[in-house]
Every structure is written in C-alpha cells, then in structure tokens.
Q: What sequence folds into this?
C-alpha cells in the first residue's frame, strides 16, 4: 500500500502482503514491476495537494481534471488515476507496455477501497476482489495465466493483538490445481482454521487425500487420511490441544485409532478413552496384515495380558502386567508367568514379580526337554543355575550369589560332557574372583590352576606339560614347561640382578637356546641369564612325573617334592579341594624360600612372601584372620624396601610409606590423623601436611620448590573449618590467595601474575563460583562475569547463533593435575601422530593437563588412558594446513575447564599410534581457505556437531556422531555476494572415503576434485543474492539440496522459483522483472563464478543453476 500525504511529500516503502496458506499452490503472485515502482516514486516525490491545471512535470506525469497520467520513457501510458485533494480517489488504472491493462483499483482518500481487478500481460484476469481501507474484504479470486481458478477466498477485517486492523480468511476457502481440480477445501473462522479441512490428490480421479477437523487453527476431532490410490491410511479422533477440567492435554486421541498399510490391510489399532489408551492395542504383520501382538492398557499403562503370534497364527508369547504404585506414582510392571513358544512347542517360562524376574526361569529344547533352569531374585541371578544337553544329561551346575545389582559365581561350580563326565570345576569367592579351577578331558586331568598362585598343565594320558608358580593370574614367576618326553622345554624365573621375567628355551638335550626378558631378546645379558637357567634346569627331577599329584591328580592332602639333588622343591596342601595350610617353594639356585603362602580353605592368612632367584624379595604381605591385608611391602630389583602399606582389620589403609633406593624416606601418608610429608631425594621438603595444636587444632599444609622455596601454604582450623591458602611463584611472589571452609574454597579468591599485578578477583561459595568475578587485562580494563551456584550466568540475547558452553568441569573441582609436558616433550610424542593430521599450534601442548591416568605397556605395544584438561584450543588441520580445521573443544567457557577422556594405543618400536579414542561431546569443523565465509565476521565458515568420540586410527579419521547431531552452522556468504543459510549439512572429512559421489547428476566438479574433496556436503540451504543489470536491482531467493563447500572451492546446484518467459528469459517468483539467462550468466562470471549451467525445469517450474567458484 502506498500512502501520499496531503502535506509534505515523503518516499515510503512498498509492501505486498500475500494472504495464502500455501505459496506452492499457485505460480503467479501479483507484484508491481520495478520500472513502474520507480516511476511511481518519481510521481510521489513531485505530487502537490489540490487540483492541478493541465501541465507536465519532469516529462513523465500530467494532471488534468483531477486525473493523473503517468508515462514511461517511450511516452506510453502506464497509469491513469483519479485524484482528489492530492490523494488518489476513484479509479486507478495501471498498464503494461504497449497499453495493455495491468490493473483496475478503486481508491478513496488515498486508500484502496472498493473492487479491483489484476491482469496478466496477455490480458487475462489473474485476480479480483475488494478492498476496504487498503485491506482485502469479502471474496477474492485468483487465476492462472490461462484463466483457470486457483483460489476462491473470503476475507474479513479484524483487530489483531497489537491493536492493528488486518485482513484474515473467514468462511469456506477453496484452492485448485492448475488443471481445475480442487486441491484444498478449508473452513476458516477469523483467520484460523475451524471446521472440516479437506485435501485432494493431484491425480486423475482427484481423490480425497485427507479430511481433518480443526478448532482454533489446531487439529481437534475426527481425522481421516488416504493413500494416493484411495486406500485408507489412518483414521481416528485427535486433539493437538484440549482442556479437560483444569488440565491442558496435548497430542491425545479418543476412540478407535486405525493405521493401515498401503495395500489396505491393518498395521495397528489402538483404543482410547478419556484421552488415554484404554483397551486393546493390536499390531499386525507387514503386507499380510496378520495379527502378531495384542496388548491391553488402562489409562496409558500396560495392564493385563500381552499376547504375540508367529506368522502361522500360533501363539508364541504370553505375559501379564499390573498397575502398581511405586514412589507415589502409578506404573506398569510385569508380573506372573511369562511364557514363550516356538513352532507351538514350549520354549521358555519365567516368573515375574514387581516388574523384575523373581523365581524360576526355564528354557526348553524343541523336543520339550529342559535346556536350562535358573533362579532369579529381584531381577538378578541368585541361586542354582543348571543347563542340560539335548539328551537330558547335566551340562552345567553353577551357583550364583546376588550382590544387589549383579550376581557372581559362588562356591563350587561344575561342567560335564554329554556322557556325564566332569569336564571343568572351579571354586568362586562370590566377589568376581575364583580361587581354584580344574579341567578334565577323556577322564584325565587337563590342568589344575590355583589362580595367581600355582598351575599344573597336562598332556593327554596324564603326562606333565608344565609346573608353574605364578606372579599373577597370567604371568609365571618360577617353574618349568616340559616336552612330551618329560624333558624340560622352558624355564621361567627372575634373575637376582634383574627385575623382569625371564623365559629360557631349551633343546631336548637340556641345552639353553636363548633367554627372553619380557619376550624380548637382550644380547648383553645372555651369558649370565643362561648360567642361571642351566642351574635351574639341572635341578629338574625325573621323579616328579611319578608323584601322586601327577599320576592321580587330586586336590586333597599334602604334597612334597624335591629337586634332583634331594633338596626341597615345594610343600603344599589341599583340603576339601581348596589350598590349605602353608605353601612353600624353594629356589633351585640358592635353596632359599622364594614363595611362602598360608591358606585357610582357599583364603589368605598369615604371611605371604614372593622372591626372585637368589632369594631377593619382591613382595610380602601379612593378613588378618579375617583374610584382609594387614601389611604390604614392595621391594625394588635389589631387594630394597620402596613401599609399605598398613591397613586396619576392615582393609582400610591408615599408613603409607615410600622410600628412595638409598633407603631415605620419600613420602609419608598417615590417614589416621590426616598428616603427610613428601621429601626430595636430597632431603628437601616438597610438601607437608601437619597439625599444630594450641588453642585450636590447626592443620598446616605446605609444598616447596627446590631448595625449600615455598610453593603452597594452607592453614585450616579443624574446629571451625575456616582457613586460607596461598600459592607462590618461584620468585616468591604470591600467585593466588583464597579463603577456605572445610577444606574447600569459600570466600575471597585473588589471582596475581609474577610481578604482583592483580588479574582476577572473585568469591567462592561452598567450592562454587558465586557472585561477581572480575578479570583485569593488561591495561587494567575490567571484564565482569556473574556466577550462581558455580554456573556462569549467560544472557540469552548475547549468545551467538551457534554458541555452546561446556559446564561439565568447574575450575574449582580440580585441585591438582599434571601437565603432559612434564611427562614427555612435544617433539617426542609428535612422532606418534597420524600422518594425515597437522596440529594447530602444536595442540597448545604446554597447556594440556591430565588426571585419572592409566596405562598398560610391554616392549612392543602400549595403552594409555586419561582425562585431558584443556586450557587452550585443541585443534588440528586435515589434510593440509589451512584446509579443514577440527576443533575438539569449541565450547570453552570461562570458569570451567574443557575436558574429555582420551585413550591411546601405540606401537613402541615403530612409533606409530594405531588407535586414539577421544571422547568429545561437541566439535567444530571450519573451512579455513574456502570462498564460503562466516557472514557475520568474514572469518571461517564453521559447523558444530554433537559427538560421542573422535577416533584417530593409523590410516584414517573416524567421527562417531551422537544420535542427534544437534548441528548448527554459522551464517555463510560466498564472495561477499551470495548469502547462504545452511539448514542441513554433512561433513565429508574422512581420508580415503569410498563409495561417495554427489547426488546431482552432471555436478560441476571433475572426478579428481570429488575424490579429494574435504568439506561440507550441504543438502538443504536457503540462498539469496542481488542481481544487477541495466540499473535494475532484483533480489533473488534460491534453495539448494546439493552444495559442496570445500576447503578451497564451492560447487552447487541451486533452484530459483519462477516461470519461463519468451526466448531465453526467466521471471522470478514474486516479481514481474524479466531476466535474460545469458545476462545472468555473465553477471555471475563477473563475480568469479564459473562452470555455470542454467536450465529451466518445466516439471518443477524452477530455474536450475549450477556453479563453481574458488577463493
């Protein structure tokens, strides 16, 4: 609407409001041509109030007898308007070039009032209706270019919530396809859908597609939907929003709800009452529509019997449910007997109570024979579990004990073969650990294994294969492996001058071939190791193979063996199948005791000692009568004590001492009185935590740099809990000050630099940041942040579109963490990086800390895991610098520490990392050198994604995205010209990606560019740009379903709505401007867009445009 004021002329904006529920239902929307608008603006700028004498101004406009005549540059009339008192009043006629009528509109006092008609350039009517004070009222009809009715609408004028008069739909509204068939038949009430709404298919029969009742613009009542061929798809009664008493219900149904498959057969039938599921819910098989499941509900809760059937109609499942009150809330829970059948035969029965398995669960073979039976208690195995062979013979006889959440083996457990012969037996403690196991084969003992202590292995026919005393459950400490002719094959030991496990390989003649240390051959130690191995080999006694423990292996009674020279080898005892009494093993070299254990029916008591060859101590323990460790000692390779632990009878540690190799104290931790001391090898104090008792008990904790320079000082009043802590730089300047309560930050906190300048001041409340925090920059300017309960307060309107925050780890939760650089320098670890990544600023390696370290290594490979604490950006480029950048901590938040768990698997010899697992939560992927930029700052275009992990494998990168990626993309712009709003996109960043190709045929890329593509495949985006030609500026809107935004180029196929004009011309939707396609191509090329292909799709009624551009 254009208003011409009666006083001073003023240029106003032009707007055209299209009142339509579906813009895709018609092709031709009315807009003034750009040329006409410019001419009209010129008229407005010159118009004066009053009656005008016949005259011409600017050669374009003439007023005569209260009429205004407007001409174009060719002197053709483009407007004739009646006026009164300087305002349009009466009939206005607008014309296309060559005098073709464009519109007839009635005005009153400058506003549209009365009937109007709009025409196409061909002269056909395209819209007619009526205005009242510039707003549509009563009937309005819209036609296509050939005169077929597209819309039949009725408008009324209402006052909206802002108090403004608006035109809204009211009454019966109809929309049509351009073949004349009806598309939609709607009812409106004051601008909102109300009543029955019908939609029809665009097919030969113009069949009904849906019939839905609406109220207040929302589905409210009966609905029916049909497939394209007329078959019923679904029907029922649905309320998107309904008020019942004082409650608002959303998305609820009522009555029978039917869902059908495309072939017309049932898919699912539900019954609702009182807006809740009440009654049966039946599900049917795909295609055939056979009933396969029936459930029953009461007030949305499963209740009563549930039944399922197989594809032959036979019952195969039956279960029962009840409604019970749990934690003051009604829930559905399974109860009674659950039964499963297979092909009509009983398969399983299980007893349920309170929603958990409780009682016997039986599983059956198809012949009806019992296959397995077990007992559950509150959802957990608890009691006997037995399984059987198909012939009814017992297979497994196990015992389980519940620990509440899970269950563990307990006591004796046995396995049998099909002939009833015992094949395996083991005794379990009930805590997940076993004490002893024994296996059998063909009636002979296969092995006896006292877990972590002693192991015997046999060849068939009861010949000894190995006799090992174990360091732990998998590695031997001392013992022999034998050839089948009973000659020593391997000898296991730890040499007295070594701390690693040795394995000597022998010939059948007893000659030592080589000795491996932890699986590795070490040339320099071979001579001495071979000598030790020979000494042990010569003590091997042929009489061992005739001992009762070998000929008739039984875990009952006492056994004493001797070496070949008659000296004692070992003495052990079993009782009731379990190790019992004193177990002693003697060294073949020194004849000293190298192992001494004491058992009480499988459980440790008394003194335990492990030594290596030569009698040098490795470990020793003392046990309480209740089998908990009383004292534990650890020794170095020379037998010097390096660690000591003392526990109470409940197994709780109360004293820990650590020593340097020279015997000097390294660390003391007394958990009973919470005192500790750490000393350097020089004797300097590194830290201390001591009590000072005067009026109150004050705990004083200190740590030191070298030469006893104070590093940290903390004092806590144990009565009040109040205290304070200070940290210092090496130059003695205070680094931090914080008040404390109950060992936690509480009160004032201050941070200084090495010169004493204040950097940060804030407050803690119960270890959480609270209130105002001020950061001071180098110039003394303040950055003020606010916290509440440890959470930063972020004002929503200040957030960026893709802003994210990582609040998982507040700063104050980490009291101590070590830097990676203190373990290994960057140059050393960088050799392990995969070759296809380039770290950004060296991963800011010096600023990476870690906690929760764990590791397992040998001479060839290793594993390490930890939680990384990241104080700077942790990013890398892929595959080259300044191409794709992947930021693994883009949500860094002030007051919090970016973090994620990391796991590393590597090969020590090749210095290759063959798997790195980084458990990231959200990552950012940026195009570093792309023509697609961030429109807000002209920086890198970036996408953000939620992830489960990022995996760096030896050959390629793998990203495990979250089920919901929660993707977000910065607003984009290409060449400072083409604006891009990305809605959906997928990263294409994995090296050597196979079986992928753009979804658009003849996409403007060559194969080599596709094969080496790194970037985003954008599958949904809105675009817009200004097309300028011959002084005209046309705003064009487009969409795309395939755009490849790479690290150094962008290629796309975009679609622009509109219609084909004569010749090689195109008219955009919502515009009357004609665009020559060759001119458009040259225009885009001038903007550095290339490989341009332009075609018009008659089917889509869209202009299809492909392009390629580089930075």
A:
């Amino acid at each position: 609407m254009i208003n011409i004021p009666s006083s001073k002329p003023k240029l106003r904006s032009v707007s055209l409001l299209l009142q339509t529920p579906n813009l895709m239902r018609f092709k031709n929307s009315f807009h003034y041509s750009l040329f006409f608008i410019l001419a009209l603006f010129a008229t407005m700028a010159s118009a004066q109030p009053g009656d005008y004498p016949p005259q011409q101004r600017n050669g374009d406009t003439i007023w005569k007898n209260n009429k205004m005549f407007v001409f174009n540059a060719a002197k053709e009339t483009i407007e004739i308007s009646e006026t009164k008192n300087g305002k349009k009043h009466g009939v206005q006629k607008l014309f296309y070039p060559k005098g073709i009528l464009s519109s007839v509109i009635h005005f009153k006092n400058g506003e549209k009032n009365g009937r109007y008609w709009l025409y196409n350039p061909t002269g056909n009517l395209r819209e007619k209706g009526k205005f009242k004070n510039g707003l549509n009222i009563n009937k309005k009809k819209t036609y296509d270019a050939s005169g077929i009715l597209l819309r039949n609408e009725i408008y009324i004028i209402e006052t909206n919530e802002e108090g403004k008069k608006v035109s809204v739909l009211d009454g019966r509204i109809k929309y049509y396809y351009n073949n004349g068939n009806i598309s939609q038949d709607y009812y409106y009430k004051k601008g909102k859908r109300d009543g029955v709404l019908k939609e029809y298919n665009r097919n030969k029969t113009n069949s009904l597609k849906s019939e839905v009742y609406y109220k207040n613009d929302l589905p409210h009542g009966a609905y029916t939907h049909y497939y394209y061929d007329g078959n019923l798809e679904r029907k029922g009664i649905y309320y998107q929003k309904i008020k019942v008493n004082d409650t608002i219900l959303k998305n609820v149904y009522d009555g029978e709800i039917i869902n059908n498959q495309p072939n017309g057969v049932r898919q699912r039938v539900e019954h609702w009452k009182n807006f809740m599921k009440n009654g049966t819910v039946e599900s049917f098989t795909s295609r055939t529509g056979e009933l396969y499941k029936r459930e029953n509900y009461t007030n949305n809760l499963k209740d009563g019997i549930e039944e399922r059937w197989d594809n032959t109609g036979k019952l195969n499942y039956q279960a029962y449910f009840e409604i019970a009150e749990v934690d003051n809330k009604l829930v559905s829970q399974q109860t009674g007997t659950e039964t499963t059948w297979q092909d009509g035969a009983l398969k399983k029965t299980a007893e349920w109570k309170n929603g958990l398995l409780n009682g016997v669960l039986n599983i059956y073979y198809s012949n009806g024979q019992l296959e397995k039976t077990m007992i559950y208690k509150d959802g957990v195995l608890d009691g006997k579990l037995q399984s059987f062979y198909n012939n009814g013979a017992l297979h497994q006889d196990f015992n389980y004990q519940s620990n509440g959440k899970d269950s563990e083996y307990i006591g004796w457990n046995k396995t049998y073969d099909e002939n009833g012969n015992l094949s395996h037996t083991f005794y379990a403690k009930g805590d997940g650990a076993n004490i002893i196991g024994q296996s059998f084969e063909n009636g002979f003992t296969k092995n006896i294994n006292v877990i972590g202590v002693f192991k015997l292995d046999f060849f068939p026919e009861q010949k000894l294969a190995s006799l090992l005393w174990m360091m732990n459950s998998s590695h031997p400490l001392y013992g022999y492996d034998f050839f089948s002719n009973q000659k020593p094959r391997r000898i296991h030991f730890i040499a007295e001058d070594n701390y690693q496990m040795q394995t000597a390989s022998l010939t059948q003649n007893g000659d030592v071939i080589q000795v491996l240390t932890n699986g590795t051959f070490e040339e320099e130690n071979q001579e001495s190791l071979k000598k030790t191995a020979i000494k042990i080999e010569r003590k091997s006694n042929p009489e061992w193979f005739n001992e009762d423990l070998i000929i008739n292996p039984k875990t009952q009674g006492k056994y004493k063996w001797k070496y070949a020279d008659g000296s004692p080898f070992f003495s052990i005892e079993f009782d009731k199948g379990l190790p019992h009494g004193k177990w002693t093993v003697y060294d073949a070299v020194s004849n000293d005791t190298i192992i001494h254990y004491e058992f009480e029916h499988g459980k440790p008591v008394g003194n335990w000692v492990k030594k290596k060859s030569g009698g040098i101590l490795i470990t020793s323990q003392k046990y309480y009568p209740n089998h908990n460790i009383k004292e534990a000692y650890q020794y170095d390779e020379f037998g010097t004590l390096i660690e000591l632990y003392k526990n109470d009878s409940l197994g709780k540690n109360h004293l820990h001492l650590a020593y340097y190799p020279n015997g000097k104290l390294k660390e003391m931790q007394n958990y009973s009185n919470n005192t500790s001391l750490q000393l350097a090898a020089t004797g300097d104090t590194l830290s201390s935590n001591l009590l000072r008792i005067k009026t109150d008990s004050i705990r004083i904790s200190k740590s030191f740099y070298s030469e006893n320079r104070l590093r940290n000082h903390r004092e806590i009043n144990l009565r009040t809990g109040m205290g304070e802590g200070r940290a210092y730089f090496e130059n003695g300047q205070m680094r931090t000050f914080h008040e404390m309560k109950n060992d936690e930050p509480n009160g004032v906190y201050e941070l200084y630099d090495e010169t004493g300048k204040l950097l940060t001041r804030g407050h803690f409340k119960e270890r959480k940041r609270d209130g105002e925090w001020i950061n001071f920059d180098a110039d003394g300017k303040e950055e003020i942040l606010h916290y509440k309960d440890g959470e930063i307060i972020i004002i929503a309107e200040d957030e960026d579109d893709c802003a994210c925050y990582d609040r998982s780890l507040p700063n104050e939760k980490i009291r101590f963490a070590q830097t990676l650089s203190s373990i290994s320098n960057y140059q050393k670890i960088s050799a392990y990086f995969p070759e296809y990544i380039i770290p950004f600023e060296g991963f800011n390696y010096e600023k990476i800390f870690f906690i929760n370290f764990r590791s397992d290594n040998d001479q060839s490979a290793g594993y390490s895991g930890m939680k990384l604490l990241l104080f700077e950006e942790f990013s890398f480029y892929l595959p080259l610098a300044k191409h794709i950048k992947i930021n693994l901590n883009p949500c860094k938040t002030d007051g919090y520490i970016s973090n994620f768990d990391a796991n590393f698997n590597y090969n020590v010899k090749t210095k290759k990392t063959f798997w790195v697992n980084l458990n990231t939560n959200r990552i950012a992927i940026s195009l570093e050198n792309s023509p697609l930029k961030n429109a807000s700052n002209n920086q890198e275009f970036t996408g953000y994604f939620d992830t489960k992990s990022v995996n760096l494998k030896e050959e390629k990168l793998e990203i495990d995205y979250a089920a919901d990626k929660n993707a977000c993309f910065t607003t984009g712009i290409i060449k400072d010209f083409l604006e891009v709003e990305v809605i959906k996109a997928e990263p294409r960043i994995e090296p050597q990606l196979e079986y992928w190709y753009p979804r658009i045929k003849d996409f403007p890329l060559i194969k080599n560019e596709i094969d080496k593509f790194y970037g985003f495949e954008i599958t949904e985006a809105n675009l817009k740009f200004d097309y300028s030609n011959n002084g005209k500026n046309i705003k064009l809107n487009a969409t795309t379903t395939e755009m490849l935004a790479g690290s150094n180029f962008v290629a796309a196929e975009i679609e622009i709505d509109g219609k084909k004009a004569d010749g090689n011309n195109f008219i955009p939707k919502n515009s009357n401007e004609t665009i020559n396609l060759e001119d458009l191509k040259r225009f885009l090329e001038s903007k550095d867009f290339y490989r341009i292909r332009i075609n018009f799709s008659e089917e889509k009624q869209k202009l299809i445009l492909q392009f390629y551009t580089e930075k």
